Amino acid sequence: MIAFGPVSSRRLGLSLGINNIVSHKVCSYSCVYCQNGETRYKTITQESFYEPEKLMEDVGQHLEMLDKLHRPDYLTFVANGEPTLDQNLGEEIRLLKKFGIPVAVITNASLLHHEKIRDNLMEADWVSVKVDTTDELTWRKINHPHSGIELENVLEGITQFAAVYGGKLHTETMLTDKYNNSQAQIEQTALFIAGINPETACLSIPVRPPAVEGIRPASDESITMAWQLFRNAGINTELLTGFEGTDTGVTGNAFEDILNITAVHPLREDTMTELLRKENTDMSVVELLVFMRLIKKTKYKGRNYYLRSYHF
After folding, report:
1. CA-CA distance, 257 to 279, in Å (whole number)?
2. 229-268 as b/e, with b when 16 or more CB fall inside 10 Å?
3. How far is the CA of 261 from the CAs of 18, 216, 249, 307, in angstroms?
């Protein structure tokens, strides 16, 4: 299925996720901290993954299965990869607006120097763009971009988009230890973000198992320094450093719900337990999915997580 959740989002309340990328992760980056693992298919070429009407139908069916308490605050394109690689994104957003729920897109912003991709995003009510750094070497170390992408073009694309976008623009900067958390790095990033004037700039840290073993979140001291430097630059700044909660929407099919959520959103063990309770089932479903090698269990910072398992 295409839709999943809704899941609790630290920025969007209850967010019904939309995975508009088929199967394995397809992205223009392979970020060291990515919760969806390493990118096996790195590309900058747009493709058609689903027919827009099919995507709308899937989301509509999913909404009908939810109770009133879990009507989402946003329909959010948060894919198993980079959602703007979907050449139908603009049409899909237009169709989804018929449900009367705001549409959000979380993008790594790597392709915004293309006018068509900026035009597609103009349809969204809320957009978050990634700005981890403005330093070339650091960008390559953290984000591992496709060879056809240049940081200068990425930053120019973000600037062009911000200048004309009429919705709610946000940025996200993922702070990782020994990569982009020095004072000089943060000041440079803050200067750029201040120039595009987002509604909010979010400072985040890896809270789920990262793609590369050994990646650690920035220290509390670095986070505090970054928050102050961003504020000094006149930026409305928020910290996304805590756990978003265990609440998720369910459809009554625990097997499918777990597979759809873990494809893009690793489930912490306490969240999994709560999902199973709502589905009136138990850990036998999880054990079966692990046995079938459809999901896998991993430990991060002392907690167990379940994430989708792909075999290449």
Report:
1. 9
2. bbeebebebbebbeebebbbbbbeebeebbbbbbbbbbbb
3. 10, 24, 10, 9
Least confident of 110-119, 262-271, 286-295: 262-271
In order of their start, the domains of the chain are: 3-240 (3.20.20.70), 254-308 (1.10.10)
pLDDT in tens, 16-60: 999 998 767 899 999 999 988 889 889 999 999 999 999 999 999
pLDDT, one tens digit per residue, over 211-229 is 898 898 888 888 889 998 9
Q: Which of 147, 149, 145 is nearest to 29 (CA)?
A: 145
Sequence letter at residue 180: N
Cα dihedral 267, 271, 274, 278, rounded to 10, equals -50
The predicted pLDDT at position 51 comes to: 95
CA distances (Å), 144 to each of 108, 160, 237, in order? 12, 23, 26
| Residue bearing tokens 């729920």 | 101
The β-bridge partners of 26 are: 41, 81
